[in-house]
Amino acid sequence: MIEKGEARQYVTDVLNVGRSTLYRARFTRHLPVDAPVLYTWRYHVAVKAAVLFFSLCLPAAADLAAGLQALKNGDYATALKEFLPLAKQGNALAEFNLGFMYDEGQGVPQDYAEAVRWYRRAAEQGNASAQFNLGSMYREGQGVTQDWAEAVRWYRKAAKQGDAHAQLNLGLMHLGGPGVPQDYAEAVRWCRKAAEQGHPGAQFQLGVMYEMGLGVTQDWAEAVRWYRKAAEQGDAHAQFDLGVMYAHGEGVPQDYVQAHMWVSLAASRASGDDQRKFAHERDFLAEKMTPQQVAEAQRLAREWKPKTSR
C-alpha cells in the first residue's frame, strides 16, 4: 500500500537518443542521501550542434551540415570524412561530433580515450555540450581515470553556460558528492536553474527536495507544483509521486480519482520493478474507490496527453 514515507529512489531510464541514458531522479526517505545516481545522458551530435553551424563561415558550415546529415542517415563514413578535416582545423563543433562518434563507435572503433581527446579540444573552446560529455567521461571513468572533482569542474563550466543537464548533475552531486561537499542549498540552486528551463528530471528532483525539506523549507504545495510540471511532460516517477500526494492529501486536497489517474499513467510508462510497483499501488487505490470513481480515473488517464515544456 502507499504509505507516508513511500520510497523516493533514484533510478535511470534509458531513452533512445544515441548513447543517451536519461536519468530520472528520485530518493528514498529510508536511506541517507549520500550516493545520488547521476544523469548519464550524453549529448547526441544532433542535439545542439545542428543549430549552431550557421555561425561558421559558409564552406565550413556546408561541410558540417553535410556531416550532420550523413550522421543522421547512418552514413558514418561520410560523416567522418566531413568532420575530421574540420576537427583538425580546430572547429569545435566538428571536434565534438568526432568525439561522439568515437564515444559511440559510429564509423570508427569505439575508443573512449579518443573520444575524450576530441571532447576536450571542443570543451576547451567553450563548447557546453562537449564540456558536459567530458564531465560524464570523468565521472564514469571512460577513457580517463575516474575523477569526480574533474567531472564537477567540467559540469560547472557547462552549467554556467546554461546547460540544463549539467546544472542538474551539478545539483545532484551537491546532494552527497563525491567531488563536492554536501550542500543541499547548492543542490537546490542548480536543480532549480535546470527546472526553470523545463527539464522534467530537474523539476521532479526539485519536487523531491521540497517534499523532504532538503535545502528548502518543507513545502508540500511547492513539491506538488514541481511534480506536476514533470508529470505533465510524462515523467513516470513524478506522475507516481504526484499520485501519492493526491492519495494522502499532501499539498493538495485528497482525491483518489486524481491519485489513481496519475499512478495509472506512471504504471503505463514505467518498466520492470517500477512498473510492477506502480501497478500494485494503482490496484490498492482502486480498492478504496467506488466503481464510478475508478471508471472516471481510467477515462482521465486515457484522455491525458503530455505537455511540452515551455
Mean pLDDT figure: 84
Shape field: elongated
Alpha carbon gap, first and last residue: 35 Å
Q: Determine the number of helices (DSSP H or I, runs of at least 4 residues).
A: 15
Helix content: 55-70%
CATH superfamily of the largest domain: Tetratricopeptide repeat domain
Q: What is the CATH architecture term of the largest domain? A: Alpha Horseshoe
Order of helices and strands: EEHHHHHHHHHHHHHHH
Oligomer: single chain
Specify Rg, calculated over alpha carbons: 21 Å
Main sheet: strand order: 1-2
CATH class of the largest domain: Mainly Alpha
- The number of distinct structural domains comes to 2
Which runs of at least 5 residues are low in confidence (pLDDT < 50)? 2-37, 45-57
Total strand count, please?
2
Secondary-structure-based class equals mainly alpha
Q: Main sheet, how many strands, which sense, barrel?
A: 2 strands, antiparallel
How much beta, percentage-wise? under 5%
What is the third-level CATH name, the topology of the largest domain? Answer: Serine Threonine Protein Phosphatase 5, Tetratricopeptide repeat
Characterization of the model:
The structure is a single chain. By secondary structure, the protein is mainly α. It folds into two domains: 11-31 and 183-303, Tetratricopeptide repeat domain (Serine Threonine Protein Phosphatase 5, Tetratricopeptide repeat, Alpha Horseshoe); 45-168, Tetratricopeptide repeat domain (Serine Threonine Protein Phosphatase 5, Tetratricopeptide repeat, Alpha Horseshoe). It is built from 15 helices and two strands. It has helices at residues 45-48, 58-72, 76-88, 92-104, 112-124, 128-140, 148-160, 164-173, 184-196, 200-212, 220-232, 236-248, 256-269, 272-287, 291-303; strands at residues 11-14, 21-24. The chain has a two-stranded antiparallel ribbon with strand order 1-2. The protein starts with 10 loop residues before the first strand and ends in a 7-residue tail after the last helix. Residues 2-37 and 45-57 have low confidence and may be disordered.
